[in-house]
Structures are given as structure tokens and as C-alpha cells.
Amino acid sequence: MTTEVRVPTLGESVTEATVATWFKKPGEAVAVDEMLCELETDKVTVEVPSPTAGTMGEIVAAEGETVGVNALLATIAEGAGAAAPAEAKASPAPAVAAPAADSAKSVDVMVPTLGESVTEATVSTWFKKVGDTVAQDEMLCELETDKVSVEVPAPAAGVLSEILAPEGATVDASAKLGVISGSAGAAAAAPVAAAAAAPAAATTGKDVANAPSAEKAMAEAGLTATQVTGTGRDGRIMKEDVQTALAAGTAKPAAPAPAQPVAAPRAPVPADDAAREERVKMTRLRQTIARRLKDAQNAAAILTTYNEVDMTEVMALRNTYKDQFEKKHGVRLGFMSFFTKACCHALKEVPEVNAEIDGTDILYKNFVHMGVAAGTPQGLVVPVIRDADAMSFAEIEKAISEKGKRARDGKLSMAEMQGGTFTISNGGVYGSLMSSPILNPPQSGILGMHKIQDRAMVINGEIKIRPMMYLALSYDHRIVDGKGAVTFLVRVKEALEDPRRLLMDL
């Protein structure tokens, strides 16, 4: 006999919900009133208990799907067939012994190479759960380091039988993340993992664990379970319990270990304002960006000089040749190649802008590894175009396009963001009219580009409308004097206002 599991009544005016988490998988034994899954609506989180005892059958609505009231979620098989799995779950001894025959076929999932000088990472997301079948090279999880996100593929096909580093855990470069059981032992892996997890859950003193959404909310708010009163079954903490505790001010976030100096304690917030706030933990990448930018301000004597450039000639040249350029080279002709070429040209005349301080020495670079700052959903990254001074316009455009795409997709390697000698940051793509960029240590110079805006300019005694852009050069005054900085910016301006100078090396 089969029993249907359907979406319960969700509340007044609520007509649909999203399946957040399944606590059971097909084939697992379930008891009456045992939690099967969790639904999330616009207002509350709803737990769905099992209407009967039996064996979990088909899951019709997968995690992430939106379902309406009374929609079919899953089926449960009743009868004699359900007794054996239930008994097996109750007795841990056979389950623990099950993997012994296949232990030799297990494959460890290890932290991949993280890059030079990177010794640890944070597990940000697991794409698979214990018991899930995985194919070789299928993505298992994603790690976040100080600089990039690293995907971890499955080293072999099989079943993910164990997760040793849960989401949020910090692991070193040689840590084991999980275990994959080979195909021969795959069938036994899921029951073993479930049985092994049962004693751990019992130690919490609850029949079921806290809602996953609540665990995430507590982690983001810096709370522990003891600081929140659960209203779910058997004291289970729900997502709204965390929100209620924060709004009422009864739970104060646990103070994290001070990784960096804190300027001042946060002022008290009224309860009605706190209820409308959202606290999200900074990613490791964002923490690193914040730390490096502040370190740059603390270590270097940053000064910024400004100028403006008439973009008429560059725009005319681009409009004339852009179609032919794209047809021949397979990439669009943008403004970045002009700016990169102009900067490389100026750096030859003012080499201290392309140098760095090392103790009491100055390291002059007889090459240009150009950093091109790129905004991504995860934060600002600076991929490096190596030997940009030896590249053609087409080679520069191809490199910028390829690295920009990899940056947005989070696919940049550590090596691709190291070794830059100078940086260009284009705030104009976001509409910035003028700004003062911050140095990218240990570099001594960074050029800030801005939006092109038509302005009235006096040309040969006549007022004309010209497309103008403000340029900003931030530099380390410890190594670059004002004369050098101004000369550099003037040379960039001259090269852009008369691009023929680049061809003639003038």
C-alpha cells in the first residue's frame, strides 16, 4: 500500500512554497510523524511530517522546486516491506560493519592545490550530500580562499559516503574533505552514513536537528543554539526563531576572534530597526580585499594626481577600424587596449611608477605585467596580463576578454593574479566621473579611468563639445615624486589624444 505525502495548509493568503530540504531519501525507513522535509514560504518555514510508518518511496518535488497547496511531494510504501529497513536503522552494529568489505575501494577527496602562499581555505558550498551518486570530475564542493574560489571535482565515480569538512569549516592545504565509496560499495554507503549520523543527532538531546535554514541564519548572525529559543517540534530551532531573537534583542551575536582592529563598537539599534536588518558574514575574499586595501593605506604614502583626456581621436580611430579589427582578430576593439598601450609607453619614461620598494631597496621592473581590475559578484579581483608591453592591440584585447570572463566565472587561478607591476581600474563602466583609486601592493602606481562625458572645451579659441574623461593616478610618494607622477599622466594623455604617437614611440 502506498501513502501520498502532500503539501499541508500553508496559512492565510499563502498559496505556494519552496522545498528547502529533504531529510529522507528514497529507500529509507520512516516512522509516523518523523520529519520528511522542510518547506519555506514568504512568511514561515513549514515542516512536513510523515503521515504513516513505512519506507520512503519516490520524491516528486525536489529541493528548490516551488509547489502549491496540496501538491504531491512524495510517496511512502507501507506494509511488511517497511519493517526490515526500520529495524536495520534501529540497530547500528550491522550498519557500521557494512563498509568493511569495500573499504579498500574508497577514495579520499582532498583539498586541491590552492596556489602559492595560500595555506588554508573555507568550505563555502557542498553541491552533493552524503549518499548522493557522483560521476568522475563532477563538482563536489567549492572552497573559498583569500583570493579565489576553487572547485573540487570528484576524483572517482561512486557514492559520497562521508563529508568530513562541512560548509563553513576552515581546512588546510592537505586536509581531507570527504570520502567516495567505489561502485561496488556504493549501495551500502548511504545507509552506513545515515546510521553513523543517528548517534550524533541523539547527543543533541532532540529527536531532530535544527532547521538547516536556521543553522545558516545563526551562522550568519554569529549566534549559537543556546542563544535562541526553538519553537519547532521538540524544541527544534526554526529560521523565524533566529529572526525573533535578533529583533527582540534577547540574543547577542557571539564575538568573533578579532582578526583585525575594530574602529568602534556598533551603536545600539532600536528593536524595530534591527528587525529590518540583515546580517551576512563577509566572505574570505571580501575580508582579504578589506585587509589589503587598509594595509595599502597604512603602509604607502598614497597621493593622487588628476588630468583629463580628450577621447575624440581614440573614438574616431576605434569607429573607423572596429569592424575590420573584429573580423580579422575575432575580438572587439575596446578602449582598454589603448589605455594599456599608453601606460606601457609612459612607464618606459617614468620607470619608478613601475617599480616597488623592498626594504631599503627599489626594484625596477624592465617589463610590464599589467593588472586589470575587474568587478565580480564575489568582489574585486585583479587578473594580470603578463608582458603587456610586448603585446599587440589584438593580443591585449584577447587577454583582457578571456581573463575578464574567467574572473566573472570565478575560474581564475592564483598564478593569474600574481606578479603585477602596475594596475588599471576602470570605474567608468559603472558611471564614475572621478575617483581616487587605492594602490594594489606592492605596486607603486594605479591608473583610474572614468566615464566619457561630453563637455564644452576651448579648442583653438573656439568652444567645442568634446568627449572628455578624467584620469587619476594614485602613486606611492615614497618612491614616486610629484614630477614623475605628473609626467606619467601627461604622457598617457598625449598618447590617447594622438594615438599615432604610440606607433612612432614618441
UniProtKB/TrEMBL annotation:
EC number: 2.3.1.61
Pathway: Amino-acid degradation; L-lysine degradation via saccharopine pathway; glutaryl-CoA from L-lysine: step 6/6
Domain Lipoyl-binding: 2-77, 106-181
Reaction(s) catalysed (UniProt annotation): N(6)-[(R)-dihydrolipoyl]-L-lysyl-[protein] + succinyl-CoA = N(6)-[(R)-S(8)-succinyldihydrolipoyl]-L-lysyl-[protein] + CoA
UniProt keyword terms in alphabetical order: Acyltransferase, Lipoyl, Transferase, Tricarboxylic acid cycle
Entry annotated with the keyword Transit peptide: no
Matching InterPro entries: 2-oxoacid_dehydrogenase, 2-oxoacid_DH_actylTfrase, Biotin_lipoyl, CAT-like_dom_sf, E3-bd_dom_sf, PSBD, Single_hybrid_motif, SucB
Domain of life: Bacteria
One cellular-component annotation, GO: oxoglutarate dehydrogenase complex
Single GO MF annotation: dihydrolipoyllysine-residue succinyltransferase activity
Biased composition (Low complexity): 260-272
Listed cofactors: (R)-lipoate
Sequence ranges assigned to domain Peripheral subunit-binding (PSBD) in this UniProt record: 209-246
Role according to the record: E2 component of the 2-oxoglutarate dehydrogenase (OGDH) complex which catalyzes the second step in the conversion of 2-oxoglutarate to succinyl-CoA and CO(2).
Official protein name in the record: Dihydrolipoyllysine-residue succinyltransferase component of 2-oxoglutarate dehydrogenase complex
